[in-house]
Amino acid sequence: MPRHKLIASESDVSIEVDEGKDNEFSLYYVEVEENSKGGKEKQATRDGKRRRERNGEVNRRRASEKRSTEMGDKRAERKHEKHHKTTRKEGEKHRKRPRRRSADEEEAEKESSKEKKNIKNERTKTIKLEDEKEKDVKKKRKKHVKNEEDDANPGKTKQKDCQEVALKEKKKKRKKPETTSESESQSESNSDSESKDNPAVGVLGSLTPEELEKLKEAVDERKKLITTLKGKPWPMKKKLVILRESQEFVEKYEGALGKGKGRKLYAYKVLMMKKWMKFQRDLDNFKTACIPWEMKIKEIESHFGSSVASYFIFLRWMYGINMILFGLTFGLVMVPEALMGKPYGSMPRKTVPRVEEASAMNFAVLWDFGGYAKYSVLFYGYYNNQRAIGWLKFRMPLSYFLVGVGTVAYSYMVVIRTMARNANEEGGGDDTSFNFSWKTFTSWDYLIGNPETADNKFASITTSFKEAIVEEQESRKDDNIHLTRFLRVLANFLVLCCLAGSGYLIYFVVRRSQKFALEGLENYGWWERNEVNMVMSLLGMFCPMLFDVISTLENYHPRIALQWQLGRIFALFLGNLYTFIIALMDAIQLKRAEEEIVKKNMTIWQASLYNGTVPDNSTALPITVHPADVPRGPCWETMVGQEFVRLIISDTMTTYITLLIGDFFRAVLVRFLNNCWCWDLEYGFPSYSEFDVSGNVLGLIFNQGMIWMGAFYAPCLPALNLLRLHVSMYLQCWAVMCCNVPQERVFKASGSSNFYMAMLLVILFLSTLPAIYTIVSIPPSFDCGPFSGKNRMFDVIQETLETDFPAWIGKVFSYASNPGLVLSFLLLLVLAIYYLQSTSKTYKRVNMELKKKLQTQNEENKKKNKLAALKAANELEQAKKAGEQCSNSASDLGVNEESSSIDEAGHRRQAGQNGRLIHPSQSHHTQNSEPPVSSTHTTTRPPASRGHTASGHLPGHPQKNAHSNRR
Amino acid sequence: MGGTSSKLSKDLLSEYQELTFLTKQEILMAHKIFSELQDKENGPYSARVSMEKVFTLPELKSNPFRKRICQVFSTSDLKDGSLSFEDFLDLLSAFSDSATLEIKSHYAFRIFDFDDDGTLDARDLEKLVNSLTGETDDTRLTGEEMKQLIGNILEESDIDKDGTVNLSEFQHVISRSPDFVSSFKIVM
User: Residues 47..106 of B with a Cβ closer than 8 Å to A: which?
Assistant: First the structure.
């Protein structure tokens, strides 16, 4: 208890010190203020004579003050002392009622006398005295405000706050007497009246440059205060008062600063600054108003806590990215081709072939993105390889290529930037040394506004507490570790089987679909045509459930279980995706073989065309064949694009349908059948579904991966995805609000966001790999797409360099792409990465060390302080007892002499620990060696033995003891 | 509802924007909510809304610290936890998205400091844990567990080993927590 008090009072002391200092500075402000005020007044009256007079007075006053500070004028001293008194009173007031500092002065004065009694601690008093001395010294130095503040406990913001409070309060109080022309408050009026002796004096122009500088600094200070005011934990009333005052102050003196031309400029600058600030604030307001779905997400946040909301925020973020991707592909690829490229039907690649014409407009065909949809800007094959199109000479193939690369590059950039930002925000979160404190102080999610969620949260917090306690005790009983181990191995085996099975199933289905495709899809029904996508979607739907069942075998901690579950689903999706891609690669090879045949047939066809119809005279017009009749290659790129589009569509459909059946119908059934069912449906078996955050996030991530993979071959994919995200935003928001119950295990959202991002990055990387592979290593089709006729797709870059740029650039590029140069550049990059990584590691280590050092130093300081305080208290006690003991010493001298020799070791220990073990050793003493002396006697005088050692009855050690005890 | 309170003047609005972490829309929204609360208040019109009425807000309804929150932000002389509009704005500002860690941790400390003595001692911590685990008996911790838990908390956070957690220690602990800023939020 006394320690506690000590600390409280210590902080008071420091507050008080700062206030004291500031007091003087605010006094200075008033001076300046009055000077300038007088100046204005004077400018109005234009009274030259009075001006001189006043100036003289100002100078005189300044001189006298100088004298007073140098020589230590008595009156000044008295004034300061009075100041200190008032500030001390105020300091006490602040301690007692930190929240209500703005209460009026008189009340404080009444209270102050009472509160003074609270300060009993001697140490506090001594510190106070020291501080006062120090303060006086500082005052004599008369530094300006800035320096002073730097001196005053740097880094202690709380004190700084108080400092500013004091400053403002003083200011306010000073102003009052000014306006009412005669002082009302007793304490402050002293200093005021002094400065009032010479009424409103001086001109602004007469201020010395240093004073101007100081005024400027004061103004800047105010400005800084205004901007930081919102970060102060004060009640609004006070903030308002301070804000108004500061603004007034700033306004008053801002324009007055500077001279002549500079002054106008300054005023202008200030004005512009103000306008700019206002504009910025409006812009911020506008920006927040523009964030879509903010209210929806907030509503969900308040019902389901931050983790469910984090999914929707992630969804919104995805939406933003897809918006950009869509803008790129739509604006730079699709629209130019549609507007400026050759129109539909002008060439074979832009026409539906004759055989398909009949069914090209059927809904079923269009739904599969066949028919007219296939031969449109939506797919790769439609684009012409004409180098420049339209009057703009738009470089279509180049644009197509660059957009493809650009979307991927942009995605990488965004994901990595977000990750870096998240990592920054989380900085230092990995520190696990505050496990319990964090659990206690930060585990409540204040967003929760739903009683049900709150109940879940209570339960989860309780279990987390209990678990943590159990873990801490490490008395966790391992019931049959062999069984759990076996079960875990079994579970993993089962999961692996599932994964392998699903992979094989997909591979099988894709191969089968190729067979179907070769034989012609028309002969088969809907299932055969959509088999691949359906199988993939169904696997994606049911396998996670299976994993969930399997994971109950493992008996993991829920958090770890969740991680396993996520990892397994990730593996499943990834496996499925890659099987799909491998199967697709096979399909590409098949198509390419087909293409070779078509190419051969093409020449035969052309020859036959000419042979059959070419008349004898060779000058006849070239034969025109309707483009629909021209034989054409299979165009594997369009096929790939189509596959991805179908995949996305079926994936979206399954998601929505699961949502409807699994959430909505389930909820409806449970709600309405509950009345006539034999068990409680709502809390029993089916119950309502929970919102599965991690599963949904994974679905979203994989969906995005497919977009990235397929976007190059189907420019319409981002648009489709945009649509999908938009719909799912509304649909899922609705579903969550109407048919889901809050999660039982409420997890925190933070911390997982970077986990999601990391998964997204992995998926991005994995999905760009196949795309890059196909672009780089497979030659494009000969008769469709923007790169037809080229050997490789990226040849378009070279072509552009050669034809559109001056020759030397091409040369530079060819030199730059020389393998020697590229290799060395790569080497340099690797070295740079290595270097940066090692430096960052070093920084981290240094940072950690610094942290540790700070911490230990802090602890040491506190310990020292405490020890000092303890010792002071001990000494006091000792001194008190000393007199008492002196009278008694004669009686038990003999006994103690014997006992102390026995107890020497104990004393030494006591000394080594600076008096901390006094009581234990004394109890030893009394128990072991003082049987003749009655116990009551010793307990009433605990330091008796110390008195002996201190008074030097024992030779050698006791002397030392006494010294160390005193020190 | 007097003409002055039913509509915020432009100056005041901009001042509030300057002084809080709220945007204009949020302040207007808060004003609307507050006026509704004032309307609900039976009895004579006053600038303050009693604590019970504030509790009816869905955002505070299930919060175990709602009483403390009102008490901390209230500037009422009666210490009844009633809020004026400005107190209400203070509350929303501290709990807003863009408020700094410093101000959030400051208020969190005051909310957790149940007896208003400036430090979190064992009794405060016990109350805090009890609020966190809910009112029902089956979620309560046993005395033994509570003792252990509080001991652990103090061991971790009480750097100067004086048996209590003071503001700077609290802020030190909180500033390293990854979730505090994201969960110490109330949105209207």
Answer: 58-65, 75, 86-87, 89-90, 93-95, 99-100, 102-103, 106
